[in-house]
Design brief:
The chain is mostly beta strands. The chain folds into three domains: 3-40 and 49-68 and 301-335, Immunoglobulin-like; 73-293, Jelly Rolls, CATH 2.60.120; 345-717, no CATH class. It is built from seven helices and 46 strands. The protein has a 17-stranded antiparallel sheet that branches. Helix 4 packs across helix 5 (487-498). It starts with a strand and ends in a 6-residue tail after the last helix.
Length: 723
């Protein structure tokens, strides 16, 4: 049974219209609006708290299953009815799975009725199949070599004979060439449109449906027409290095037969002309004229709108969800309600790390990596029901933690699709506990329990609005894992602190990867992982710059923006065992910081929690002046000791050596810190993803809850400097 959906946005304000897309096995689905307070059913916590919104009348919408059409390609809507007779087609290609055992379209010219008039296809046996309107006309066996580029040339003579040639280009020299014999082709028709990197791509309602998608790179497809007198004129000349940050395929042939790039394949990809001398595509765009297509790319699921609804005008800022019900099945599609642009503000803003949610969206590492067998965890791995749901639906696409079917890394992720691990009841398979949104609800629940007014904002809001979004807030509190951030977001947080605001960093491995948002498609995020950093995979050589912005990717520390400089601490280790430790208070603290532990008699803080049974675990951060931590940062407490399932982060290892585990390396720890800022505010950091899971322990009466209360009270007591 299927019941799922997604929204056109991750946040909205009262009065804004939101679109809901639904897919369901049932004929009808009941839709209501709820507020998310706590999603974890663990009996050691307060239990699930999902609250109705009385002012929103439930509605019923039609059900029915919706398709998702994976795979990227280029659609050229018009070729002006170019006659096939005398046509010449040329394209550079670098197949990555020629032995996939299925057909993969390289280029197709389509007749006015959408049928194939002429195409080149890698068939299930790996041969190049040349086809006309009547089917296959010739086949060319190519000895594909991994990593090689090839030039494919097709020519239809004036007497309707097709000739094809495929040439391997290696070290910029011709290494192999094969050509078909001249074979007759029905060439009376004309080319009305074209598809590149697929056999066809019809429009199905609101969706494009790529068919038999090519895996690999394609560069500089072009079409010419040769007249009977031998003269040659350009029909189309597509330069894929143009407008890389868009979904356009630019034709410079003079007729403006521009194409649409479907489903976000990898752009700013090295081409056949790359010289291995320059890695910034903006400086040598002609060497980056390739697009890397994949049969599992996805930009927008493209489902029709099931319901458009208006966020109630009187709704408080918070975390909400559209609740879907069909019989006994229930699903919650979350979004944030930010405060009205003209309304009052709370003094505290909770900043949901939605960039990180989308980077991890539909993460499938449990099927690819063996954390248990590789001794990265001390407990059996059991995928939860959301991971099992995701496994049943490969068509819902990949995350930035997955690799494509050809083994290349995923660099883009979208929120316009169902995302089962972005749900209030999600339990991460590795931690067997909430992570991301479901873990951030621990903080939301605690603030509501304490009666502390707060607004909810998202990374997407902050990237869009910049520093102005935070101007009204005295305190900004992060979620548990703000790993993916843009430069605009960092600028805004730094401006907030410079202007006297305070920051509570309640997570681990924060502010780590350079992340870009597509300006034309804000639902699409981009990263480029290089050979440095703790990473699940990495991109190809020379492909470290973002196509959407032109900026260098990788870790922010590689660009001098150490997370330590913002928060006082930075990523140091990760590990997943059954018992995360707590923090031991520093032996001597300045008298002016005595308020932090006021009312706390325990030496160890947070030796408990709903995530891994402790407050310091999963991914953790340390204080280190050599890595950008301001020297005035005060270490309030340090984790009491981690097992050897925790290992020092790879980027901090200068050379392979022993002693990198938690029981041996003093750098494997998380530090709770306080950092005074010149503007009058301060930064409180905890350096652990597990931390918020300890807030509700013992009915919210615990030392972590007390420390949080003390820190918030101190920060709110400070008068923010006038801007």
């Amino acid at each position: 049974m299927t019941l799922t959906g997604y929204l056109n946005t991750l946040s909205a304000e009262p009065g804004e219209v939101v679109d809901l897309m639904v897919s369901a096995s049932a004929d009808t689905v009941e839709v209501s609006l709820v507020r998310l307070r706590h999603g974890d059913e663990n009996p050691q916590g307060p239990g699930r708290r999902i609250l109705p919104v009385p002012g929103f009348a439930p509605r019923t919408v039609p059900g029915g299953l919706r398709d998702v059409h994976l795979g990227s390609c280029i659609v050229v809507p018009s070729l002006g009815g170019t006659p096939l007779r005398g046509i010449e087609v040329s394209v550079l290609l670098k197949p990555t799975t020629p032995d996939a055992g299925r057909e993969q379209g390289v280029i197709s010219l389509l007749a006015a009725d959408g049928t194939v008039a002429l195409s080149a296809v890698i068939d299930a046996g790996g041969a190049l199949s040349l086809r006309g309107a009547d089917g296959e006309v010739s086949s060319l066996s190519v000895p594909w070599r991994r990593g090689s580029w090839y030039r494919l040339e097709l020519r239809v003579s004036s007497d309707d004979l097709l000739v094809a040639r495929c040439t391997e280009l290696r070290a910029r020299r011709e290494m192999w060439s094969g050509a078909t014999d001249e074979v007759p082709i029905s060439a009376g028709s004309s080319a009305a449109s074209a598809v590149i990197a697929a056999v066809s791509c019809p429009r199905v309602g609101t969706q494009w449906a790529p068919d038999r998608v090519f895996n690999g790179k394609i560069e500089h497809p072009q079409i010419h027409s040769r007249a009977a007198d031998g003269s040659r004129t350009a029909v189309a000349d597509w330069r894929l290095e143009r407008e890389m940050g868009s979904a356009r395929c630019v034709d410079v042939g003079g007729h403006e037969y521009h194409g649409v790039v479907i489903n976000a394949p990898l752009r700013a990809a090295t081409g056949a002309l790359w010289r291995h001398e320059e890695v910034d595509f903006t400086k040598v765009p002609e060497q980056y004229g390739a697009i890397h297509f994949h049969d599992d790319d996805l930009d927008d699921a493209g489902w029709p709108v099931s319901l458009s609804f208006t966020v109630p005008d009187d709704l408080d800022s918070g975390v909400y969800a559209v609740e879907l019900r069909a019989g006994a099945q229930v699903d919650h599609v979350p979004f944030a309600v930010r405060p009205s642009a003209s309304g009052p503000r709370a003094r505290i803003a909770v900043l949901l790390p939605t960039f990180t949610y989308i980077a991890y969206g539909n993460e499938r590492m449990v099927t690819r990596l063996d954390f248990e067998g590789d001794q990265m965890s001390d407990h059996p791995i059991h995928p939860g029901h959301r991971d099992l749901e995701l496994a049943e639906h490969p068509e819902w696409g990949l995350s930035m933690y997955d690799v494509h079917s050809d083994g290349s890394t995923c660099s883009y992720s979208t929120h316009l699709r169902p995302i089962p691990n972005l749900r209030p009841d999600y339990r991460a398979w590795l931690q067997d506990a909430p992570r991301h949104l479901s873990a951030d609800l621990y903080l939301v629940d605690w603030l509501m329990e304490k009666g502390q007014p707060f607004d909810v904002l998202t990374d997407h809001d902050l990237h869009r609005d910049g520093a102005a979004l935070l101007a009204a807030y005295d305190v900004v509190i992060t979620g548990s894992h703000p790993e993916y951030v843009s430069g605009r977001m960092l600028d805004a947080l730094e401006a907030h602190l410079d202007d006297g605001g305070s920051l509570m960093y309640l997570g681990g491995n924060g502010f780590y990867w350079v992340t870009s948002q597509d300006a034309e498609r804000p639902h699409l995020l981009e990263i480029r992982r290089g050979p440095v950093g703790t990473r699940p995979s990495e991109g190809g050589p020379g492909q470290g710059f973002h196509s959407t912005t032109g900026e260098p990717g990788g870790m922010w520390r590689q660009r001098g923006r150490w997370p330590n400089g913002l928060t006082g601490i930075g990523m140091t280790a990760q590990g997943w065992d059954s018992k995360a430790p707590g923090y031991r208070r520093s032996a001597a603290l300045p008298a002016e910081l005595g308020f932090v532990f006021a009312g706390v008699d325990d030496e160890v803080i947070g030796d408990f929690g709903l995530i891994m049974n402790g407050s310091s675990g999963d991914e953790i951060d340390r204080f280190d002046p050599e890595r950008g931590s301001p020297p005035e940062t005060v270490v309030l407490a340090t984790s009491t000791g981690h097992s050897d399932f925790y290992l020092l982060a790879g980027e901090d290892v200068m050379a392979s050596r022993a002693g990198l585990g938690g029981t041996e390396s003093p750098d494997v720890r998380s530090d709770m810190t306080w950092l005074e800022k010149p503007g009058g505010g301060a930064v409180f950091s905890v350096g652990s993803i597990c931390f918020t899971g300890a807030l509700s322990h013992n009915g919210y009466r615990n030392n972590v809850s007390t420390v949080m209360t003390n820190v918030i009270g101190e920060m709110l007591s400070r008068a923010r400097r006038a801007s």
